[in-house]
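My current task is to audit a protein record that another person submitted. I need someone to confirm that the token line plausibly describes how this chain folds. Take the sequence as given and treat only the tokens as open to question. This is what I was given:
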Amino acid sequence: MGVEKVFTKELMDFGYIQIWGIKLHLVLTDVVVTTWVAMAVVSVISFFLTRNLSVKSPSLRQILAETVIVAMAKQIRDFSQTPVFPFFSLIATMWIFVAFSNLIGMVPPFHTPTGNIAAVAGLSTITFFSIYYYGVRFHGIGYFKKFFEPVFILFPLNVIGEFGRILSLTFRLFGNMLGWDLIIAILVLLTGLLVPVPMMLFNIVGDIIQAYLFGVLTLAYIVAGLRVEEIDKKLSGIKEDWYEI
């Protein structure tokens, strides 16, 4: 791994287009390609793990997949204290995709997508809109009253606070991943593979923790504006097992 691998490379330049007066520069970078590869890997593994499922005689891969799924469901339940079903698809996908995006940078010649601020900003944008999707889903348009609480003159500060949380989410993951990539690259230049190899093994654990924190913070931002009793009331007809959460 060299220092040059840390920074984004332009692979193809498609020039400029103009949409509604906004001039956009279309460039295909190695980060985009690596993100596509990560998406393809996750899709193929998911397809493989969900074939020929059986209740009576589950295969080893089915047991492994169910163990991971149930563990993620328990984490969502323990953290949110709400039914798991509404949030599982989003949060579990965040955990899996961000973890693969973090780890794929260790495989030459791929670039870590989450070490690029544009890629992380895209993930944070999903978090941003998810907050309001779930807010309106469970509380209707009245969800937006929170911006005028405790007194209406605090509306501008509440709006700034909402954007501040998303910015902090973006820069926390981007900064951690870019900084770690730089440290590993510099150590490779200075010491060869003697020191970086054990550090890269330790980095696997760090990458998974970063993915976990990104998903947990997304869940925290979503449930922070929700009333648990309202969710329980609306989802009272749904029975959840998740191995008896």
